[in-house]
Amino acid sequence: MFLYKSDVGMILALQPARMSHVLHRSGAAAAKRIADASYGVVMQVDGVISGVLPVCVRAAGPHVLGAYSEHNSSDLAHCAVVREMLEMFLSELDGPAASAQVSSCDVPVFAQCGFVPGSSCAHTTHMDFCMPGNAAVPTSARAPV
C-alpha cells in the first residue's frame, strides 16, 4: 500500500485509466468532484489506484469533496481505505479547521476521525473538523467563499 498527496484532477485528465477501479464504483459524480479538486490523497495498491480523497482549497480551509474507493461503500474494505486516506489528510492539515461533503455511508468513518456532522441533503452530509483544543469557528458557521 502506498499513500500520497497529488493533483488528482490532473491524474484523471491525463491518465483516466489509472482511476478506472475507483470510478467504476463511484460514477460520474465522483469524476466531476475529482476533476474539481485542488489536490487529493491517493491510495495505491500494487500499482493500481484503489482510493481517492479529493480536496478543494477554500478561504475557510480545505474542503473534502467526497471519499471514493474501488470497494462498495457498504464494505469494511471501503471504510478502511477512506480512514487511511483521511488520517493522512488530517496529519498534513495546515490550518485549524477543515470541512467535508460526504456520502451518508461515510459519515461514521469521518466521525471516528473527529469530523462533526452538520446539515444533510439527499445522500450527502456536510461535516466540520476543528483541531482538538482549538476553539476555531466551524467552517459551516463562516461566511461562504
What is the quaternary state of this protein?
Answer: single chain
What's the count of strands?
8
CATH architecture: 3-Layer(aba) Sandwich
CATH class annotation: Alpha Beta
Query: How many angstroms separate the termini?
Result: 36 Å
Look at the helices and sheets and give the structural class.
Answer: alpha+beta
Q: What is the structure about, briefly put?
A:
With 145 residues, the protein is α+β, with helices and mostly antiparallel strands.
Which helices and strands, and how do they pair?
Blueprint: E1 2-6, H1 8-14, H2 20-36, E2 39-45, E3 48-58, E4 61-64, E5 68-69, H3 76-91, E6 97-103, H4 107-112, E7 116-121, E8 124-130
Parallel strand pairs: 4-6
Antiparallel strand pairs: 1-2, 2-3, 3-4, 3-5, 6-8, 7-8
Helix pairs in contact: 1-2
Textual characterization of the structure:
The protein is α+β, with helices and mostly antiparallel strands and 145 residues long. It has a single domain, classed as Aminopeptidase, CATH 3.40.630.30. The chain contains 4 helices and 8 strands. Strands 1, 2, 3, 4, 5, 6, 7 and 8 form an 8-stranded mixed beta sheet that branches. A hairpin with a 2-residue loop joins β7 (116-121) and β8. α1 (8-14) crosses α2 (20-36). Residues 136-145 have low confidence and may be disordered.
